[in-house]
Structure formats: C-alpha cells, structure tokens
C-alpha cells in the first residue's frame, strides 16, 4: 500500500535497519514555522500488528535493543515517534519539549498512525513511557478507535514531590505562565541520567545533546499543560480499550528525597509508583497492572532480569488482548 504524501524514509541515527521519516507539522499557536515530528521504523513492515513507541520528557527514542526484543518476540513491526521539539525533531531555536497543551501532539500521533496503517497494519498498540504515557493516555481518550491497545511504561500521572508542593504547583505554574510561559521554574536532578549513561557508569549510550543527564529546563507554560493533564487523569478517563500499566515495584527518592545509590540501580527514582497505581480503578474498563521488582523508571533500561520480565509481560499481554493470529503483510 502506498505511503501518505511526503513520507519518505532515510537513514536513521541508530544506523543498521532503523530508518526514519520526517512528518511536517502545521505552525503552532506561537507561530513556529519549522515544526516536524520524526517517525522511526525498525526494518521493513512484514506484519499486520505494530507498536508505536512514544518517549518521555527530556528524551528521544534510542532503545534499539528493546525495539528488537518487542518486534522479534511478538511478530510485530516496531515504530517510534520523536515528538515536536524533541530528539530528531528538535531544530535550532526551539525550546526543547516546549508545548502549552498536550493535545498539540495529536497532530503527529495521528500522522504517524496514518503512515503505520498505510503500511498494512491492521492492529496498532501505543506504548508510552513516562510523559509519553500521559500524552498517549489522553490522546486515546480524545481519539477513540485510533489504536487497539495501550501499554504504559511508568506513566507520569503526578508530580513526585511533597503533598504541599503538588497542591501548589498548578496555581503557581498558572500564575507564572500567564506572564512568562517560557520562564524556567524548576530543573530536574542529574542522578537518574548519570546512573544510566555509559559515560558515568551506566549501561546505556545515548546522545547527551538530545537527552542530557540533567534534563531539560522545566518552563512554566509546559508545566501548566502537564498539571492540567494530571488533573484530567485524576478525574478519571475510563478508556474504552485494553490498557497494560507497568511500573517498578518500588520508588526511591520520593517526595523530594535524593535517592541512594542502591535505589538508583533498582527502583523508579524519577516518579512515585503509588501515584500510578491509584489511577488504575478509573483509567480504563480493562486495565492490567504489573509491577517489576528491580525495575528502573524506564523499565526498558533496567538490568537484564527486570528488563526481560517487563518485555515478556508486554508480549504476553499483547498476545492475550489482540485478535489471534498476527499474520504477515
């Protein structure tokens, strides 16, 4: 089947059989004229099922080993999307990750899904990590029927801070954003990033200009969009598709406390997993919660045993929730 117009794959920064295509986007409300997203594909499409991976904040798609495991283990084609102002889609002059409403991402998600469907895929699973889990959850609510299932890898459903700071973060972000939405109001710690990057003792190599260990600055307008999305999730989504929610079995460094070295190796040190668990009753009609002992914030970057447990869980769940017989194109 022919691709939608202007979708041409070329070599990807991951090399090998990864290819990527630019998805041009409309100018946003702030007048940016050079917006685009980037769709990454592993190999040529050969199956009727596909997974579309969506990264988190201060992130981009680089988890090549994870992609191969999911694709080979589930007879699936694997795609990933670098959202506007992130990773492969970041352009000179862009504020990394800057968005004022998470619904802005609907444009690139729908464009990516159109390409994936055009390449012969009858069933598509969205897989969102961290902020990508928040983005994809709300996308599915607004776009019923766009995908067939949703997998969430440590979704960001609340701020990992004290109760008082969680309570005051939204009005403070709103007050600053009304005057200066681009103002930096917070920063991320570098402990997690340093713990996973190969240059500082971690197991993974990624581009530190696209995913800095200290993260991107947190700006008022972006934080307000995130907090509004958090409140929407807290009110209840009740999505009408099967959802798999995977988290570490434990968090370290919760409520503003700095994680210990042992916690950095075996827990979610970015978010509080309890915030994810409490959403389960009103997230969807069909929700499966799985916790992974020893898992990190990005379960796909965990040590070999918890990473394999997470990936096996995803593959078994997809096989159980989608129609029998993935077939080939």
UniProtKB/TrEMBL annotation:
- For whether the record's keyword set contains Hydrolase, the answer is yes
Q: Which UniProt keywords apply?
A: Hydrolase
From the UniProt record, which GO molecular function terms apply? hydrolase activity
Task: Give a yes or no for keyword Aminoacyl-tRNA synthetase in this entry.
Answer: no
The residue ranges of the Serine aminopeptidase S33 domain are 47-184
**What is the name listed in the Swiss-Prot or TrEMBL entry for this protein?**
Alpha/beta hydrolase
Species assigned in the record: Miniimonas arenae
Taxonomically, what lineage is the organism? Bacteria, Bacillati, Actinomycetota, Actinomycetes, Micrococcales
